[in-house]
Design goal:
single chain, Growth Hormone, Chain: A, globular
């Protein structure tokens, strides 16, 4: 099955035709679950500190991401991803049981969030590695853009559906839908993962500069993991991309995600459905960015796009420090989401295109390790908001973010800025 439109060409690959809806079901369920539980914790506890703790626990397993990436390289990305998603369904079933039994509490939610957080951070990296391992190299940019739409559409539909189900039909009904979506994601994931001839591989001219020719795979998984870390450390463009990923998770994503229930209720006076619209505004911009990358990404130098879009993202978030109303905030989140998507998809393209094929799972696992700064940013945000207010938090986080971004661009300018740099290669 082939398509005449280059932007949709990845659907000509059988594995991608199954993986895309699998990722979509999983992303919708994750988004609905995160929004519902975040609102529940905020309302039941009345504490922004507990809300930030909930958000931080959802990413506590980031330290395990390199290990799961290594496991994916050894036993198969599809198998590991399907196993992770089966655990999401099981844990969602636990929440559903607590709701039906009338025993759900913020403490129970935090306990389940801790277990989910052990594996959830690795999902995005492993799904990206599976895409790169199964689609033809010429279609990688389009495939990454299309793959990203699963997350972005989930933040739109999942946010609105989660808020709607919770407000009108109750938490139990919402969780029945969530469990069903997780199960569908597991079934579809098991149908994907078979690489065709010509699947995406890093160009020899690029990988030869990044690391020596790979030796036969060692028997020890710890040796595999160490090799992956060394591959990233000794490749400057990969190190720069990892530094930028850590930066935005520390300073940008807390303002764009984990604090959303607080921002909606306490800053703009919105109810649960208003929270859904605020999240959907950000996700709509991200979806536009993903579609733009899939259609026109082959014309954009990835490293330059990553840096410039990241600057624009921070400037959009800076607008939240102004005395604005909810409609203007939604417009700012729309623009922030657009630039976030452009920056993060470009970052993934750099990692996947310029890493050796053998290291893809481990490189994306290390990339997920950069998410560990997100719980740090969330946990720090609670006391800062309590001490100086939300707008003071915005000024601190955006100021720090732009300063560190300038430092990254300066330190790795030869690897990120020239048109001739491998990280800016258009193919």
């Amino acid at each position: 099955m082939m398509t005449r439109r280059p932007a949709l060409a990845p659907f000509g690959t059988r594995s991608f035709r199954y993986q895309w809806p699998a990722d979509l079901c999983t992303a919708w369920a994750l988004e609905m679950e995160t929004l519902i539980l975040g609102w529940y914790v905020l309302v039941e506890s009345g504490s922004v500190v507990q809300l930030t703790l909930f958000g931080a626990l959802m990413f506590v397993g980031t330290l395990l991401s390199p290990l799961l990436g290594t496991l994916g390289d050894r036993v198969g990305l599809r198998r590991v991803l399907a196993g992770m998603r089966a655990s999401y369904a099981l844990l969602a079933g636990v929440i559903l049981g607590l709701v039906l039994g009338g025993t759900l509490s913020p403490t129970g939610v935090l306990a389940v969030a801790f277990v989910v957080g052990l594996i959830k951070p690795s999902d995005i990296g492993l799904r990206s590695a599976l895409v790169s391992a199964t689609v033809p190299a010429a279609q990688l940019v389009a495939a990454m853009g299309i793959s990203r739409t699963t997350q972005d559409s989930a933040r739109i539909g999942g946010a609105l559906a989660g808020a709607g189900f919770m407000a009108s039909l109750g938490m139990a009904t919402a969780y029945v839908v969530i469990v069903a979506l997780y199960v569908a994601g597991v079934v579809l994931t098991l149908r994907s993962g078979r690489a065709p001839k010509g699947a995406a591989a890093a160009p020899a001219s690029v990988t030869s500069r990044a690391a020596p020719a790979p030796q036969p795979r060692p028997a020890s998984p710890w040796r595999d993991l160490l090799e992956g870390l060394q591959h990233v450390w000794h490749t400057p463009r990969l190190r720069a991309a990892m530094a930028l990923a850590a930066l935005v998770n520390l300073c940008a994503f807390p303002l764009s995600g984990g604090l959303m229930p607080y921002i909606a209720r306490d800053v703009f006076g919105l109810d649960q459905q208003g929270l859904g619209w605020l999240v959907a505004s950000y996700a709509s911009g991200a979806l536009l960015g993903s579609l733009g990358i899939s259609a026109f990404g082959t014309r954009l130098p990835p490293a330059r796009t990553m840096v410039l879009a990241c600057v624009a993202w921070f400037l959009c978030l800076l607008g939240l420090a102004l005395p604005i109303g909810a409609p203007v905030a939604m417009a700012l989140y729309l623009a922030a989401g657009l630039n976030q998507s452009l920056s993060m998809v470009a970052l993934s393209i750099i990692l996947l295109r310029t890493s050796h094929e053998r290291f893809r799972g481990r490189v994306m696992g290390v990339r997920m390790l950069a998410i560990y700064t997100l719980p740090i940013g969330l946990l720090a945000a609670g006391p800062i908001v309590t001490a100086i207010g939300f707008r003071g938090l915005v000024l601190i986080y955006v100021g720090l973010g732009l300063s560190l971004l300038a430092a990254i661009a300066l330190v790795w300018r030869d690897d990120l800025l020239p048109h001739a740099a491998p990280a800016n290669a258009l193919r």
